[in-house]
Amino acid sequence: xxxxxxxxxxxxxxxxxxxxxxxxxxxxxxxxxxxxxxxxxxxxxxxxxxxxxxxxxxxxxxxxxxxxxxxxxxxxxxxxxxxxxxxxxxxxxxxxxxxxxxxxxxxxxxxxxxxxxxxxxxxxxxxxxxxxxxxxxxxxxxxxxxxxxxxxxxxxxxxxxxxxxxxxxxxxxxxxxxxxxxxxxxxxxxxxxxxxxxxxxxxxxxxxxxxxxxxxxx
Length: 218
Description:
Low-confidence stretches: none
Structural class: mainly alpha
Helix content: 55-70%
């Protein structure tokens, strides 16, 4: 179930009342960067700006592999090397995608002693669909035309894109493109892993963006 920002505001306000009443309560919230920013910037719940924030970055592939293998083994099952490789590849270090892929490939054939490649592939397709419907469609709707132009200018590159190349493809100066870079970084759509270079930070988003832009041009 998707929770809206107004609903999170009401929860935060209730929590604040509990605190003022001296009750022993704690509040832990998680969400997409743009939703978190919208909530923290709301004047109705200014106390949230003092909350400690923790950003979940990308998880190294080795740690993804170890976590999946450990979880499967502790559940009394095994996973084929090929299935594990495909799962790690599509997760691409994204914590939420790890949750989706792990759950879906496990549930494909839960009575089997091993998660086979076919199970993993079907589970991955279901996870991609959930990722698109639950995250990517919402993220895309929040993009401005300038955001889309910036992202479209990243598509010719296989992985990292330099700000200089993006600016050239957009036909603008680097300081203008930097405005959209900052917006997209704040939204968690892209990540900057070396100075002046960015890459898509959400798995499946590159393919999704290409398809959406193509549909809009037709």
